[in-house]
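> agent: user asked for a holo structure of the chain below bound to manganese (II) ion. Plan: (1) validate sequence alphabet, (2) canonicalize SMILES, (3) run complex prediction with ligand conditioning, (4) return tokens. Step 1... ok. Step 2... ok. Step 3 dispatched.
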Amino acid sequence: MHSFQKLALFLRPPGKGIYVVSAGPTTTLPLKVLSLWKKSFSKIPKAKVILLGVPSDCGAGYLRGANMGPLELRKILYQNKTFLKYIKSQEVIDIGDVITIPQLLYDEMLSSKQIQKHRKYLYPKNKAEKLPVSPLSILKDVSKIIFSLNPKAKIITLGGDHSISWPIIQAYHDHFKKTFSILHFDAHTDLLKSRLGIDYCFGTWAYHANDLIERQERLVQVGIRRSGKTKAYWEKTLHVKQFWAKDILKNPKQAQEHILSHLRSLHVNRVYISNDIDGTDMKYAASTGTAEPKGLTPSFISELIQKVGKEFEVIGGDLVEVAPPLHLDHKGEPQKTLSTASTYVISIIQSMTF
Ligand SMILES: [Mn+2]
């Protein structure tokens, strides 16, 4: 099957990726966005940055809602002048959402009989083809298709919970076989090997990514403040590099320099940026599954992303764990979280286009 045919099966219009049976989200994006999407696949070979939504929160903790991230974030982005400039110039194209059956995570969790059942719904005309059915598995294939159509493309993904970073990182690694580091903003380490028997979820993706990039302090975690183990434990046992929030807050400018000089010391030019919104202090972003106080400021994170973009090649990035239905008892939410998150999306796009 041709790449474009596959994309047409794997993707849905922006904000419409959640596979619903009857009632779905009551609001949608402007028709203009949907008509742009129709032409977007043909523009993949020449685009600089490819925006992709993954409305999946099946890999999250017990508070869900990150599956609404791609739709609600785009509502803000498509009103932002800087973002619209990128879209108009076609430097950034929006190829829509990965089709997501909300109860599924990745195909290895399913029996072949069960996979076959889902194929009947997802791909009624192509049900005999061995196509993936779960959001993480589809995302991996979509990433591979994008890299083969355009090896220079940089994918920015709107999550979804943090598990969505794993298939993109894995696809990049498998396709290019090149060394890269990961700049990871988060309140948590996400370094469990497995959680409740699940290998790939919001609490484990970083463990596997760290192994994939061969450790050596190439996984750089920034903003950590809720962990059952110490910084020394993680750094010693898993050879990651961590910058905890409490140390950063003492002198943010100096911390930025320390993080940049660590990245330089790796002698790896390529950086993937994974931005969990809970790395940010909950004052600015409470609409997320595991919001934490005493975190980083949005300006610290945006500035660092931009500085990294000026010095390194940002090969891909994501913004995850934005859960608009959560913590609405916090004043100004979810607007505050969405506006903070949209600033990050634009910073990541800028870092990819310098
Ligand atoms: Mn995370």
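> agent: step 4 complete. Summary for user: Residues 162, 186, 188, 190, 202, 276 surround manganese (II) ion (CB under 6 Å). The longest strand covers residues 313-320.
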